Amino acid sequence: MATRRARCSKCGRAILVPIELENYGYSTSITMICSGCNSQGFSQQPNYPFLNNNNAPPPPAYGRRQSWPQTPMAPQYSMTPPSPYGNKRAVLFGISYGSHANSLKGSLNDVHSMKYFLTQKLGFPTDSIRMLTDEPRERNPMRIPTKYNMRMAMRWLVEGCQPGDSLVLHFSGHGSREVDYSMDEVDGYDEAICPVDYESEGKILDDEINATIVRPLPHGSKLHAVIDTCFSGTVLDLPFMCRVNRKGYYGWEDHRNPRAAYKGTRGGLAVCISACDDDGSAADTSAFSGMESAGALTYSFIQAMQVERRLTYGQLLNAMRFTIRGAREEYGPNNQQYVMDNRQQYAHEPQLSCFEKFDIYSKPIAM
Fold first, then answer.
1. Where is this region: Disordered (predicted)?
2. Disulfide engineering: 173 pairs with which of 95, 183, 342, 362, CB 3.0-4.6 Å?
């Protein structure tokens, strides 16, 4: 160990001091005491200026690595970041099924109309809307409505959902009914939507839709689904379905099955506006404009919402049905709807379902 000469501060005797201490800045302020003075009751420990400072490190021990105390770091908290899309988010699916025998003409028009309505009339940011279509000009493989992409888009819709968020799901395409093997449907059938690759990958059942976008909704959030497809009455598997007759009187049907799992939310509002009942069909027609095809549900929904901004759910449902009935009458007396009984006429008109019962004529729509 390298040393230098110094003198005892008590008796003046020459002593050797480790040069190592100078490397730590102590050379000018150290009070050294020799062994003789120490035996008379004086401390041999150097009198470091910061000795009484609890935050200062002791001098290093020779011959081993000194472990210096570390300044404690502020605790880190894991917090869910706020959504970069504000409190509004939407997923739109529009599927025409290309050259398929049962291709649809109005689905692509529907999603473009819905996107315009959400951004221009309801204030949804453009980058908060994820639209998946099978139109030929779509080059992004993640924007093709395959079963996988649709599943991912629905998860994205509710990811990080917080109180105050307003979510929208819109689907325009084919729907289907499948035998209920899980035994949780009152009528014995699951409702389903058909991705563009449903023939090879299968359909998306209402059980999965409910588990993905309904059950995660926290208190204070809201989801509105506009489902323009056949067999769509309970496609979100919501517990209650509203029945409205031609005079405007309504009642709620309970679709809960005692053997089924919970199908509600975590306190949020979930509402589905569907094109028809579970055994009904949806219309893809040009009767509204006379030129371009459109889904009857999508067209009548946007028209009603633009006419009156503070609609209640009851007013919306009646306005949509009025628009669709008017188009059918304009279409001609040979329309198949004229030969149906009353029950079947209701089955082919817009339906409302929700996770809870409420007064449809007093509750305003807030999207």
1. 52-81
2. 95
